[in-house]
Amino acid sequence: MFVVQMISVVGFACIMPFLPLYVHALGTVTFMSESLCTALVYSGQALTMMIASPLWGYLADRYGRKVMVERATFGGALVLLLMAFPRSAEELVLLRMLQGGISGILGAANALVAASVPRSKSGFAMGLMQVSMGVGFALGPLLGGVLADLFGYQSVFYFTAPLLFMAGVLVWRFVDEQFVPRKIEGKKSINIFSAWKRVSRAPGVGLLFLLRFINQSGRIIYFPILPLFLLTLIDNPEKINSYTGIVISVASVSTALFSVLIGRLGDRSTHQKMVLFCLFGAGVVFVLQSLVQTGWQLIILQLFYGIALGGVITSISAMLALFSEEGDEGTVYGLDSSVNAGARMVGPLLCYAITSLFGMRMVFAFAGALYLLATILALSLLPKNKPFNS
Fold this sequence. Notes:
The chain is mainly α. Helix content is 78%, strand content 0%. It has a single domain (2-173, 192-381), classed as Up-down Bundle (Growth Hormone, Chain: A).
């Protein structure tokens, strides 16, 4: 699953550096402005994923997590191929919404891994999965930016669609899941609403979902303006796609390098301590990013942000496994994916509003404030004791 998730993330992340520029190249054919379409390219995909993910998670607990990973990879490959042929920015928005509804590889993969490893090793396991995601996000934007500069935007989709298809084949051929549906009190199966209710009421889980929402909002909020912000910091704008890919990749590399270490430290002490330290660090780094004057300053701060991000993501994922019951992995990580998607829907819209009112630098300052708020919430409300599944 490490390899499958890494390949899948490379495929999806390849398109991230140039999406705002792809919208500009396609142009609009309706009343919608390019700025609005840029926000919707991110938020529309997140909206459909937010709606679909809890359902996919419930189906994973009923019919198996492996088939959900196959659905995400094969479905994602088809949609990425179609993205090479839109005739307008509006059509690209619709395809991104379709992608959100049928993909969702991260939640499906995390559910499969969480169901397969001992809970006492969840931090290490989720750290490894975060490494695969970090490597994917490091390679994907860099490859996508270079391919877009050399061969044009369509070439990137011709590259990414086969990657997703190959990941699906690897799951189908080599992943073996010994799946047993959950039984409760003599019932043949649990219904979707009782599953959501039970998971949401588990101690600490609701707060973890809130922390996940804040973290993902901060992580995505600056993406729509990143190429434009970099244009104000660099001297050679003809390489903007490559520069954007480098900035994203630097954070992803540091995330990958430190995720397993932080996950291991959380297993040995507590993940509560790790998430507090990393949330605070992310907040400070984002405030500093609002003050940068050169591209290199932004790159260095992104490196430190990646370290903090790896700790936040890994610790929250591990605590979700520890605070929930066995057999609920699909539901838990389906809801987690929905929360992630909701944040990715809200983040670009907040970016659009903040940029319009206060300018691009305030987007980074706002993200820093979000992380500092999350630190206060975690310090005040997160259970201090070891969870019952530890």
